[in-house]
Design goal:
With about 70 residues, the chain is mainly alpha-helical. The chain has a single domain, classed as 434 Repressor (Amino-terminal Domain) (Orthogonal Bundle), CATH 1.10.260.40. Helices cover about 55% and strands about 5% of the residues. Strands 1-2 form a two-stranded antiparallel sheet. The protein is globular. The two termini are about 15 Å apart.
């Protein structure tokens, strides 16, 4: 799943460490999300949505796998 997390964070001038502290996760979690190595739990997706004031689907882009 792709996401706009890094773009949104940088637009607001927020460091990974600052976002991680706000969401009560590790900096590594934020880095992994941004690099697409990790998909968020539904709870974390909602926290990110609330933090940025956006819908979940405005942050995370679901793409179906080709068969």
């Amino acid at each position: 799943m792709k996401n706009r997390l890094e773009e949104l964070r940088k637009e607001r001038g927020i460091k990974q460490e600052e976002l991680a502290a706000e969401l009560e996760v590790s900096r590594q979690t934020i880095g992994s999300l941004e690099n697409g190595r990790y998909n968020p739990s539904i709870l974390l997706a909602f926290k990110l949505s609330k933090y940025f004031g956006l819908k979940i689907e405005d942050i995370f882009i679901y793409e179906e796998e080709e068969k």
